[in-house]
Design a protein that fits this description.
The protein is mostly helical. It is built from four helices and three strands, in the order αααβββα. The termini are far apart.
Length: 154
């Protein structure tokens, strides 16, 4: 009597399942099993690639949805409020809330200084009300009109 799994594999190849296979059939059976494993490995690799692709797509879509929601809220604030200070306050608070930032601030340039308009999360001591555009990262961004990303400020 042959093992049930061997019988199943022989049957899948259309071979006799009642007698032990001869060397030629063993060779064919092993080649088929090897091929199945190779196909399985290729399928798993493809699935892993697809998983990464869809994870990236999800994260990108989620971030874009947050940005669109933020833009909608800011547009609504601009439409409904004529006071610039109220618009700035809404912009800072909604941006911090939507993006999950504990700290956020908005400065406007007056002459050669950055003047704090509104902030979220900073204490009175930590908040910098005025900053020359000749100093710091914010000053550099104001001078060059180009964004600058710092991964870790510590």
């Amino acid at each position: 009597m042959l093992h049930p799994q061997l019988q199943q594999q022989l049957a899948a190849l259309g071979l006799d399942t009642t007698t032990p296979p001869d060397p030629q059939i063993w060779s064919r059976l092993l080649a088929e099993i090897s091929s199945n494993y190779s196909e399985h490995d290729a399928t798993e690799a493809s699935l892993a690639d697809n998983e990464l692709f869809f994870e990236t797509m999800y994260k990108t879509s989620y971030h874009q949805a947050l940005q669109l929601t933020l833009l909608y809220k800011l547009r609504t604030a601009l439409d409904s409020k004529l006071d610039l200070n109220e618009v700035i306050r809404t912009a800072v608070e909604e941006t911090a809330d939507m993006l999950g930032y504990g700290l956020a601030s908005l400065y406007l340039i007056e002459n050669d200084e950055l003047i704090l308009q509104h902030q979220v999360g900073y204490s009175e001591v930590e908040a910098i009300d005025r900053l020359p555009i000749t100093r710091g990262v914010m000053g550099r961004v104001a001078r060059t009109d180009k964004h600058f990303y710092i991964e870790d400020v510590n």
